[in-house]
Design a protein that fits this description.
The chain has helices at residues 33-42, 44-51, 68-80, 92-104, 113-130, 134-144, 147-159, 168-176; strands spanning 12-18, 25-31, 56-60. By secondary structure, it is mostly helical. Helix 1 (33-42) packs across helix 2. The longest helix has 18 residues, at 113-130. The termini are far apart.
Length: 181
């Protein structure tokens, strides 16, 4: 009998989102084979947890910069191989929440690129001209690899007088642009 350590045994694994304000979301079943590999390819953090032999992973969004619907849409995307935004009227805030969750779970953003491109086309020019949401755009651009937008947005954050805060996204930005965290 061979060892299953480091490989994907055909056992059922699942992810549940623990939500303080709604019923728990999930569990989302990932049964062996391709579905488990799909999680591993798309999230270094969650894939690592599955590889350690955990059969059940609980995710909590309390105190995070995104909500339970963001995590729900991410996990459903890996299961159903189609991204559906958590809100029909998706906007920069939805994309910002998604980007923060993708960053935290070290996810491959490829499943979400067409959605992100659509939001960028609708909102980036106006937001940049008005000087709004620069911190959000810098995180979004970081996640999706938009160097030009990252450069413009991150340069705009100090001009807006955003004081260094201990919150996660500004700490990440400070490290990237070379300021002390």
């Amino acid at each position: 009998m061979g060892s299953t350590r480091g490989s994907y045994a055909p056992q059922d694994r699942d992810i549940t989102i623990v939500c303080a304000t709604h019923k728990n979301h999930g569990p989302y079943d990932f049964s062996g084979g391709e579905r488990l590999r799909n999680v591993s390819r798309n999230s270094l953090i969650l894939g690592g947890r599955f590889r350690t032999g955990l059969h059940h992973i609980s995710l909590d969004c309390v105190g995070k910069q995104y909500d339970c619907y963001t995590l729900d849409s991410m996990i459903k995307t890996w299961r159903n191989q189609e991204y559906l935004p958590p809100r029909r009227d998706a906007d920069v805030q939805v994309l910002s929440h998604l980007s923060k969750a993708l960053l935290e779970y070290r996810c491959n953003p490829s499943w979400f690129e067409s959605f992100a491109e659509g939001i960028k086309e609708q909102h980036w020019d106006d937001d940049f001209q008005q000087g709004g949401r620069s911190c959000d755009w810098a995180i979004i651009a970081l996640v999706f690899g938009w160097r030009d937008i990252f450069g413009l947005a991150s340069m705009d954050v100090p001009r807006l007088g955003v004081p260094p805060k201990p919150n996660e996204e500004c700490a990440v930005l400070r490290r990237i642009i070379g300021e002390p965290a």
